Amino acid sequence: MDREKLRGRDRRLLYEWQQLEARFDGRHDISCQPIRYNATGLPTAYLVNYRIKSICGVADMEHFGEHDVQNPPIFAADYQMRINLTDGYPSVDAPAVFGFLTHDDEGRPIPHPWHPNIRFFGDFAGRVCINMPDTYTDLAWAVQRVAQYLRYEIYHATNEPPYPEDQKVASWVIRQGEPNGWTVF
């Protein structure tokens, strides 16, 4: 595809595709594949596969949040995240949408990350809070940042701006995960 013949959004879509391929092609821990294309043949959605050990829940969900109940983490090593590029992407009011899949094609639950910056509970389960610095930040940067989330190298669990995406998970991180060393693995 000739970059010089593309304009505006299509030029940015091509740039994102090239950056994702350059950064993640051949890696064993992260892979990225286009799953939807626009009329020009450029990707507008991606499926990112993470093969990274991370927390996917706690052992005793029935007693989650109860005082004095120890709730050690449960781990998984395979996660799938979808990136959707809205029609207005990359404008400030039309950012990329990042979300982990929480169910398979048959509707059965699949592991999704337990992280304060990724929604675990509710209707928006799987939604990722990236806090991208600006609209010029590329998707490859965000995919790598999420890998850091999964490894618990980066997280925001305190109830202050920019605020955790999932307050319940953030509370667990502060009250049990950090004190017990469960966020270091």
> How would you classify the helix and strand content by structural class?
alpha+beta
Distance between the termini: 43 Å
Helix content range:
10-25%
Q: What's the overall geometry?
A: elongated
Strand residue percentage: 15-25%
Please mark out the parts with pLDDT under 50 across 5 or more consecutive residues, or reply none: none
Largest sheet: 4 strands, antiparallel
- Main sheet: strand order: 1-2-5-6
Order of helices and strands: HEEEEEEHH
> Count the strands?
6
Rounded to an integer in angstroms, the radius of gyration calculated over CA atoms is: 18 Å
The mean pLDDT is 94
| DSSP summary: helix tally | 3
Structural commentary:
By secondary structure, this protein is of the alpha+beta class. 22% of the residues lie in helices and 19% in strands. The protein contains three helices and six strands. The strands form two sheets. Strands 1-2-5-6 form a four-stranded antiparallel beta sheet, covered by helices on one side. Strands 3-4 form a two-stranded antiparallel sheet. A hairpin with a 5-residue loop joins strand 1 and strand 2. The longest helix has 17 residues. The chain is elongated and about 65 Å long. The model has no long low-confidence stretch (mean pLDDT 94).
